[in-house]
Write a structure and sequence with these properties.
alpha/beta, Rossmann fold, 7-stranded mixed sheet, 8 helices, 7 strands, 38% helix
Length: 226
């Protein structure tokens, strides 16, 4: 019996039984140098959008093997990595050895329990929305609003359907797989209007959306001050 796309815990535990598989399914490659370089690039984007401050508690939705956490944690007070897969978190723990300001939390795949309300300064999720149904993307935007302190910041991204490279991703998947053969983790794109709508509907202020490298759509905003 094939796995359902929305059964995220089962899907991602099955795809991350080894380090090689986890790296491959998270990023599409296993080269450690590229893994680190892409994480540095993500941190640069976070600096340009929500900011990275030494007194911040940062939380990542879908931290995988700790790719970004390893790079960003030296620049913040605390980094919390949340993921649906226990296998991913086990690998992340190895990657984060020696970084005492990091914490890993297994979650259900649909919310950020047991993270407390109004307890973190910034929430981000990168290269994750593509693996989620649209309703679950929005649920995480709502959960980000819940766990952020007043004035806290949120960032999210996905492959941009309207970009040339994003359309190529869409067409490659459409042509490669028959409807009943699509893998549960297959990437699904977003658009800038979708991301903007999610942030505004969830109540974020100072919402911005942008495109990048003719491939990514991303957005960011702030939780209104109390």
């Amino acid at each position: 019996m094939s796995q359902l796309r929305g059964d995220y815990k089962s899907v991602w535990n099955s795809l991350s039984g080894s380090k090689h598989d986890a790296y491959l399914y998270v990023s599409g490659y296993t080269d450690e140098d590229k893994f680190h370089a892409d994480a540095e690039d993500t941190v640069d984007v976070l600096r340009e959008t929500v900011g990275v401050r030494p007194d911040d508690t940062f939380l990542e939705i879908g931290c995988g093997v700790g790719r970004v956490g390893r790079v960003i944690s030296p620049f913040v007070k605390q980094w919390i990595g949340c993921d649906v897969s226990a296998n991913m978190l086990r690998l992340a723990g190895r990657r984060l050895l020696g970084l005492p300001n990091t914490r890993l939390q297994e979650i259900s795949g649909y919310d950020l329990q047991p993270i407390k309300d109004a307890s973190v300064d910034a929430v981000y999720t990168t290269v994750v929305f593509m693996h989620l149904e649209e309703w679950d993307r929005y649920n995480y935007v709502l959960e980000a609003m819940r766990v952020l302190k007043p004035g806290g910041r949120f960032y999210c991204d996905n492959v941009d359907l309207a970009s040339p490279a994003g359309w190529a991703v869409f067409e490659e998947s459409r042509l490669r797989f028959k409807p009943r053969e699509r893998p549960a983790q297959i990437s699904k794109c977003s658009t800038q209007p979708e991301i903007e709508t999610f942030l505004r509907r969830a109540g974020f202020a100072d919402v911005n959306v942008a495109g990048r490298l003719n491939f990514w759509a991303y957005g960011w905003g702030k939780k209104p001050a109390a």
